[in-house]
Amino acid sequence: MKQTLRFAAVAALAGAAACTPTEQQVKPDEKPVTTTPVQSTKERSPQELFDQGVAAFDKGQLGEARAAFTKLLEKKPGLVSAEFNLGVISEREGKLTEAQTHYEAAHKADPMHEPTLLNLGKVYRLQDKFEQAISLYESALKEPGQEFNVPLLNNLTVAYRLAKKFDQAEGAARKVLSRTKDNPDAYKNLALVYFDQGNYRLAEFISANAKKLDEKDPGVWNNLGMIFLRNDDRRGALGYFQKAVSLKPDFAPGLFNLGAMALSYRDYDNAEKSFAKATELDPTSYEGFLAYAWALDGQKGRDPKKGLAAGQAFEKVLALKADQSDAVCGAGWAYAADKTGFDKAVPYLQKCKALASTTAADQQLIDAKLKSIETLQKSGAQAPAAGAAAKDKPKATGTGGASLLDKVTDDAAKSEGAAPAPAPETPAAPEKAPEGAKPAPK
């Protein structure tokens, strides 16, 4: 099995904060209008419920926030702010389908509510529904007075690029620059359009312009790192990724890219730390969880419990992207590292064997592992030692180079493209890091 490691690029979304598709937070605007005084006992007014939801969200109490906004919707069906905030909560929890449902309800209630347009488009992109994102933005831009809406155009640029409609992506970016010539987000997007087409020299030139406009934008340094990585200057790339994270310690794409570089050198401990932070910051990226799973999986030879943790991470990938082949096979091999995971390992390994992408050699290895598990279960013995596990399982084949994502994350749109980065050899279960499990240029 091949474990292909990719790096993440950062595109500029939603024109507000540089590189962020939209302020992904529960907003206190558009509060429900209360015409009656606050009620005294258990029954809360719409205004109180709204305030309660916002306060709970700010404290990280997502369950309480969800309950408050859900109750608010019962009182005020179709309230845009309530549907929008429920979408944000679902997105924060990594429940993209649920988030899409709430955002679509908010969009139906108010087709020109800009935060909803931006977040709904982002959720479409995260699910590879690029054409739906494009249609959403194009329709909004046709409305009176919206032709040069910068946040919408920047997001449309990203959607075009991810759909590989490069001419249209370049046109949208230049349309922004025709009205706001010093827009760093447009320059970042334009640089990634060239990057994805292999024109690294022009991508670097455009990124340098973006850096002049905002030297403290971590996304610019991140994207420069991706360019250097593509040009096989790994030391230079590492420096740029580190610079991005130094400017913004909670910058998920930079953390992801640092993790991807560590993983490519089989530095599993540091890779695990970086991916743990990145996935906490961006729970919507299946690529992030896939890379995190590989970092954990690489340690299961010395600690079988890491294999169980890897299996759980692979399952998070599947929750975000059903039937993702790397995660299916990875979960099977990861859970097979410890007898407490055998019951989960068996169905995943069986499913992995049935995949069209599974080679005949890997199918034989799976058969051997399934037989071994059956024997161990009957005898009540522990899983084989690390050395034996390594023989049973297909080895990860690393590839050289670096590659970008075809995704757009919360804080920054992930880009696709670069060359596959070297993947570590995992003793028990090789898998490839998803299209998002790549370091991220910004």
Q: How much β-strand is present in the residues?
A: under 5%
**Quick one: CATH class of the domain at 1-19 and 217-442?**
Mainly Alpha
By DSSP, the count of extended strands is: 0
CATH H-level homologous superfamily name of the domain at 1-19 and 217-442: Tetratricopeptide repeat domain
Using only C-alpha atoms, the radius of gyration works out to: 23 Å
Secondary-structure-based class equals mainly alpha
How would you describe the oligomerization state of the chains in this entry? single chain
In this structure, how is the largest beta sheet organized?
A: none
Q: Mean pLDDT across all residues, rounded? A: 83
Apparent shape? globular
The CATH architecture of the domain at 1-19 and 217-442 can be given as Alpha Horseshoe
Distance between the termini: 30 Å
The helix-strand sequence is HHHHHHHHHHHHHHHHHHHH
Characterization of this structure:
This protein is mostly helical. It has a domain at 1-19 and 217-442: Serine Threonine Protein Phosphatase 5, Tetratricopeptide repeat, CATH 1.25.40. The protein has 20 helices and no strands. Helix 15 runs antiparallel to helix 16 and helix 15 (286-297) runs parallel beside helix 17 (325-335).
